[in-house]
């Protein structure tokens, strides 16, 4: 039987071409119609250090990045020793025999990556040697890889053809090495249904595309892993009249200056990770209090403090909900897939405009760096919202009047007022009167009711026990759900990226259930504690390794609750 | 505050220098909107936290827009507002604690960018609203509620700091000289770049420096504040250096460099001059 799903992991040192190989393979396979997903993890340093990236290739839609490896490509001995146990029985290890040797057995293919590359006249062609070998091992037609090579290296330079030729030669050298060894892991089936109109992006890119699609005007950020690529993309692309993008001197400057931009009428955003988000707490409180639309993207990494800058974790949920002192509860959108990152960014900006306040978009390292082919988002159907602006001519406009959001005056237009972070009256002037604090606190919380249009997924909703993950744990959790369903377990599925406010119907459904199981990547079981505070009987399956869940592990854990 | 607002429950103490600063600022706005033929709604007052920040509520004449944010962060706020709409006249009102203590880190970056806004700093050498703690401009050795055995650090020298950081317009005022102050504020608003008007605005409650600043002939006290000689050329940076390094507090326009490009002009020339791709073109970049 032909294979439908293959996982290839490239492991070595930073700078050896590990990431390029994995992403090259992903792109080549996506171009020929397969569903692909990469997962990367690397140390917090520029060159060197153990790095690995894996590419999952499947004939049908996939949700996770794959538990076990069909092929391990080990660039050095350390990589071999640390990853060999994850190779599935029947899998193959391709290793660089120029670096180390493995006592020969049936499942290894040693090649001198560097020597073979040198034979092509291009020392940097080692990636293509490896891909050539893979083509033979998993039955990928070599012309798919040749097409990719041509596409990738046609850059309008004189050296293009030379590089393309040497890479093609590398492919064939690698291919022949694998033939000589006579190994195979089975031929990959043709893709079932090609995604008709697709883009290949990672989570950070999808956020950039979603935010600009709804008219982002201002972006101010400070470099921090793993959110920096959002800043860099914006610096390059958020240009033109009326746009402002800038690298600030701190996350405090970022948050306060986007509040300024939001106040002066712009759609404004920043992106950061845990340490920077902590510095933004006071600013988020101000935006909530003074009613100013802004969006903060927190690409979560391992915490607390500096924590694990390049590893994944879902441990910022509670701080996202309650980032500052006092009575505040932020709207939080947490996408669970690369595709959702696009819509989450668009919705976060729409929400901020609609209720005139701050919105937190929670992403995470594993999704930020995950490259995946997704259906090209349809821009025509995307709602684009803009705050209600005050255009009136009243003698003294009461900007904060009423029990919910009201038209916002913009400097330069009518209705001058003081946007105030101190408790205030309807004009915006500071006051300490008890009745005003009551009125204004209720107004601010009441505005959240404007955001009750989040969508959610519900499958086998009759079941007494539901799996309800959040964020990037959605992928492995859904695959676990599918496996359990196939086994005949009576378990259901509910999911939303709108963590707060949660769609009311979904909330009511969850309240009726015997048990809600929440897989999440943190120690404290943060989301289940939030659900319990809503009178939902929820428990967490936690993991705090800096790595995503394995499906197999989740299946086992969920079964223990059934 | 457009009305006599019964809800508003903040007051400056009798004799507070900030009353004078308010009159100066109201006068500057009046002239600014006539000279520049702009509605008052084109001006935005960005307030820090402290007695000085309440200026944004205390203005009694025509009402500009205002924002009363968080302690120390008036400059980043002003940057967001100005760069979000470069047509606005943005004026920061802050105290010495807000501007030079908690907010000190934000001065140099705006000076480097030459952000085209005006900051009015009310310096009373003390934290007034929290009842009399030492501030960056409190003298060495002074006993305050937070320095019961005397202040242990040298005071900062604001005018020297501004000069070193590259602020492109520096003026120094005193709250009792309202007309002079008003003229300097107006020039600051019209200056293309980052302007600071640093005003001695004494706190009658915790650090009454009126006598020291203005002197008292009957007691034989010489004033430490003096008006800058007419022949001083603010465009001469050496002359400006000499002024701020000399004894006493010079009152008047110390330094002015109108030749530097402003941050918003720079934006207009660089990224602002490019054209942004539309969403479909962005998607095409990642299409496979």
What does this entry look like structurally?
With 562 residues, chain A is of the alpha/beta class. Chain A folds into 4 domains: 5-181, Pyruvate-ferredoxin Oxidoreductase, domain 3 (3-Layer(aba) Sandwich), CATH 3.40.920.10; 200-375, Thiamin diphosphate (ThDP)-binding fold, Pyr/PP domains (Rossmann fold); 388-451, no CATH class; 457-559, 3-Layer(aba) Sandwich (Rossmann fold), CATH 3.40.50.920. Chain A has 19 helices and 21 strands. Chain A has helices spanning 18-31, 77-83, 113-119, 126-138, 142-153, 160-181, 203-213, 228-237, 251-263, 274-279, 281-290, 317-321, 338-355, 365-368, 434-446, 474-486, 504-511, 526-532, 551-559; strands spanning 5-13, 35-41, 50-58, 69-74, 87-96, 108-111, 198-202, 218-221, 244-247, 268-272, 294-300, 332-333, 358-364, 371-375, 418-420, 457-459, 465-467, 492-495, 498-500, 515-520, 538-542. In chain A, the strands form 4 sheets. Chain A has a 7-stranded mixed beta sheet, with helices on both faces. Chain A has a 6-stranded mixed beta sheet with strand order 2-3-1-4-5-6, with helices on both faces. The longest helix of chain A is centred in the first third of the chain and has 22 residues, at 160-181. The radius of gyration of chain A is 26 Å and the shape is globular. The model of chain A has no long low-confidence stretch (mean pLDDT 94). Chain B has 288 residues and is α/β, with parallel strands linked by helices. Chain B has a single domain, classed as Rossmann fold (3-Layer(aba) Sandwich). Chain B has helices spanning 17-35, 55-58, 74-84, 96-102, 107-113, 158-165, 178-190, 210-214, 237-245, 263-269, 279-285, and strands spanning 43-47, 65-68, 89-95, 118-123, 126-127, 133-134, 169-174, 195-200, 225-227, 249-256. In chain B, the strands form 2 sheets. Chain B has an 8-stranded mixed beta sheet with strand order 2-1-3-4-8-7-10-9, sandwiched between helices. In chain B, strands 5-6 form a two-stranded antiparallel sheet. In chain B, strand 1, helix 2 and strand 2 form a beta-alpha-beta unit. In chain B, helix 1 crosses helix 7 (178-190). The mean pLDDT of chain B is 96. Chains A and B meet through helix 1, strand 7, helix 7, strand 9 and helix 9 of A and strand 1, strand 2, helix 3 and helix 11 of B. Strand 15 (418-420) of chain A pairs parallel with strand 2 (65-68) of chain B, so a sheet runs across the interface.
